[in-house]
Design a protein that fits this description.
The structure is a homodimer of 516-residue chains.
Chain A (H helix, E strand, L loop, with lengths): L2 H32 L5 H25 L9 H30 L12 H12 L15 H28 L20 H29 L5 H12 L17 H14 L3 H8 L3 H5 L2 H20 L5 E2 L5 E2 L3 H16 L14 H13 L12 H19 L7 E3 L2 E3 L1 H28 L8 H12 L20 H15 L3 H4 L4 H4 L3
Antiparallel strand pairs in A: 1-2, 3-4
Helix pairs in contact in A: 1-2, 1-3, 1-5, 2-3, 3-4, 4-5, 4-17, 5-6, 5-7, 6-7, 6-9, 8-12, 11-12, 11-13, 12-13, 14-15, 15-16, 15-17, 16-17
């Protein structure tokens, strides 16, 4: 294992993350100094101090190991990816910690950000685009910190898309070949320039969508520029951090809801398809099996939840109760279904009192998640599809053991390794989810708020990178009341889910660390 | 599909089952007529009438289709196996129904056996060796019906052992090759005589164990011959029906508990190993990987539960509360762990108030179950073992995609098909378990006794053929309070779990019914 090389890349990454943080710090300073934003008095300081520390630390690590070269091998890449999120969340959480200690100095207020575990949870939730928060009063934060929270979503999302669509398939990472952008073949400039090109195109797509989304949200007239920016950063990465306590319901606007539904839908699609579109291959993108299954699944569940909600009052996340007119029921079922399926986790309605049947469907969708190659969580639609096909063929093998039918997804044939990989992934995600729920429940013994549904849905919501869950972590609740140990466990679950488990799990196998 | 051939075999099977029932009826008649057992007055009639009906019906079906010959193909075998349990449970449940309607004629008593769903549930629970009961007062049944209940366990267990150890491996059924008794090879008399020999040896082993168990239990002096017989029939098939309301705790005897623990342990072992022993291959049997993993798993969990129970009072299923001395804690933790892991479901202690941690371990063991080739439920230890090995190799593939290591269990190599089969089985069992829990919860909306833990553990306990669950279906509760629809769903779950899912699930695939 070439540790120096990993350190060098990680140092660079941390310095870059801190550099972006310093820009938010500068904006905060301007707001405070020139626009009289008193709330920013401690925030700009916290952001700039944390950014300087990060740039210094990251820069030093980079300097000390800059002589490292050689090729970044598979194990080095995995370690780098895992550390990027695990260490990145430390760096991204420092400004919260500094701000709370400066701002409430000498007062009796016990702000969640006084605790290391809370800061780590919040920044991990940001970088993994989960959107679970430990804050009960989000609006009390200075705007610069709200912007930084949303920015961690956007950066984490960009990292994941580039990683899963451009980097891993080109490295031939196991099971990722299905999700590759194009057929492999000798490319004149070798692998590396190819990865860079793809990554660059993806960055432009992401930036383009960001610009369009900001303009669209601003044009509704219900969001100011700041809210438009923050919600855009959050929605395109299927994150879920809002600037309001009541999440998107605070804007009380059909137009905002519709735009955000569309943006969530878009963000849950495989970005490889957008890449294909930039190459002019629109019809290939539209014919994608996973995309169609994803849309179908969504519309079916929206319809079922809509029917199931008839005649029930709906409580919004603002606390207001509205009559369930057909329009209102459709709006709320569509928003909630899309938000939970894509793992965004924005809320407009409190779905906890909804009928059992609807909640089961929603939890099922949380587990399934959006498309591979997006920032949605869960097992991904493609693995569900492969899993069902494998099940059907196993059933047939029970009475026709010698029939061999190639398993197809669209026009590609899924090889046996990928079949096994997809099914194992579903099992492992589920096992970890249950293990997480059990550990949280054990850690919270004596805490009456933590019933089994709460622990189970908290574990599911974090490992599937959704955000809200049921009961104690429902749409109108938050994760602040858990103990520190539970928060650290859930932070690990978020990282596990985000990096599709194996990048983190391999760190626990002895063979990973042995040999060169 | 050769329906006539299936009908012929099924008719024969039903006639045989009814024949055995008539023997119990005869015993009942003798008890009533010559030993003054007044309780048998309606029971012997019910048993004999049902037996005559079954022999007549089965015989007629056999007669009408007796000209059918030709080879019993794979699809015919699957259909026959599925129908044997689905229809067999109807036949075995008829005496309960007749007895209740005769015995409570003209009275206001609403006995559970007045309802078809309850009778079907009870007899399915018997034939699938689950041991879940809908009776709250077991001791109120006539002894002949108690004997018949226990006998359904024993017959169902024998059927499963012969099926999974002798028949399926010899047919080369997918995924069953690992569990085969010996290496395949040309046998002089073809496949059929070989199956018959193996089945006969298994029958002798089963009968031998039965005789030893009856004698051992009788020698304790705490059980009379009747109880010894009934509990032996129940324990060797990992069933769980007792003759007492308080299950095994009613005998209040350390000796009985120890003998039953040993018998449960034996019954959870792959019967192919006993077969090997009859061929003189003791050391091969002892070196079996699954056997060792099974024993290790059990002892580890007993130790953990034992430690976890320290200092807590223990409530027995008799309702009595005892101080948790070390001896008492060891006795109860060992009995409960072995009973739930092997899917027997006998109870001495009410484990529902035990610490959360212990209950999680016990539920985990219920899901895992005993060894393949036994009548234990769950996914079976061997599949857990293969699943963990597959997981480890998938982890290694994340950083060494080109390493190929054959996956070994003992000295055999697991081929890719069997790996996929094992993992798919775990997923499907779990999916069905969750689906079952959701359906039961939906069916029981408005029924306050059915909380989520109850529905979930009832679904798990039935599909894993255990018997008791948690909360509303805990050690001191029963399944009688569920609605009819829930009972039918749980009956299906028992059949699904018993026949390792695929034999039942294939019936729902259109391809199964197409073609010849």
């Amino acid at each position: 294992m070439n540790y120096r090389l990993v350190a060098k890349q990680l140092g660079l990454l941390i310095a870059m993350l801190s550099g972006l943080m310093s820009l938010v710090g500068a904006w905060s300073f301007v707001q405070w100094k020139f626009f009289g934003a008193a709330a920013e008095r401690h925030a700009w300081w916290a952001l700039v101090a944390a950014a300087l520390g990060g740039m210094l630390g990251g820069g030093l690590v980079w300097l000390r190991s800059r002589s490292a070269h050689a090729h970044l091998g598979r194990r080095e890449s995995l370690l780098l990816v895992a550390l990027s999120w695990l260490v990145g969340a430390v760096v991204a959480g420092v400004p919260y910690f500094i701000w709370a200690h400066l701002h409430f100095q000498g007062s009796d207020v016990a702000h969640p950000f006084h605790r290391v575990a809370d800061c780590y949870f919040e920044s991990m939730s940001g970088l993994t685009t989960t959107g679970a928060t430990i804050l009960s009063d989000i609006e009390a934060l200075p705007r610069s910190l709200l912007l930084w929270r949303a920015l961690t979503h956007w950066l984490g999302g960009l990292g994941i898309i580039v990683l899963f669509v451009a980097v891993l398939p080109s490295l031939g990472a196991s099971g990722k070949r299905l999700f590759r952008v194009e057929a492999p073949g000798p490319s004149p400039g070798g692998v590396r320039p190819h990865i860079r090109d793809t990554a660059q195109t993806l960055l432009w797509i992401y930036l383009g969508l960001t610009a369009v989304a900001i303009v669209a949200l601003r044009l509704t007239g219900k969001m100011d520029l700041f809210d438009s920016v923050c919600h855009t950063l959050s929605v395109l990465s299927t994150g879920g951090f809002s600037t309001r306590n009541a999440s998107v319901a605070a804007f009380d606007s059909v137009a905002v809801d519709i735009i955000i539904i569309v943006l969530m839908l878009v963000a849950g699609v495989n970005f490889a398809l957008f890449y294909q579109m930039t190459q002019g291959r629109f019809s290939a993108a539209w014919k994608d099996t996973e995309l169609r299954a994803y849309l179908l699944l969504k519309f079916v569940v929206i319809a079922l939840v809509f029917v199931n909600m008839q005649g029930q009052d709906i409580t919004l996340t603002t606390g207001e109760t509205v009559d369930a007119s057909a329009g209102q029921a459709l709006r709320q079922s569509a928003f909630t279904t899309v938000a939970l399926h894509t793992g965004t986790g924005f809320c407009t309605a409190d779905y906890d009192p909804w009928p059992f049947y609807s909640r089961v469907l929603l939890v099922g969708l949380m587990f399934i998640g959006g498309c591979a190659g997006s920032t949605a969580g869960g097992i991904k639609v493609i693995r569900l599809w492969i899993g069902l096909k494998v099940l059907m063929s196993e059933l047939e093998r029970a009475f026709r053991p010698n029939v061999v039918r190639p398993l197809r997804v669209g026009t590609s044939i899924v090889d046996p390794d990928m079949k096994l990989g997809a099914v194992v992934y579903v099992v492992v995600l589920f096992m970890l989810l249950v293990l997480g729920a059990v550990i949280v429940q054990l850690l919270e013994i004596g805490n009456e708020r933590c019933d089994f549904q709460t622990a189970f849905s908290a574990s599911m919501s974090t490992i599937c990178n959704v955000g809200p869950g049921l009961h104690g972590v429902g749409a109108r609740e938050n994760y602040g009341w858990f103990g520190d140990a539970s928060k650290m466990v859930m932070s690990l679950l978020m990282a596990l889910g985000r990096l599709e488990i194996f990048a983190i799990l391999v760190l626990f196998t002895p063979r990973f660390w042995r040999g060169n």
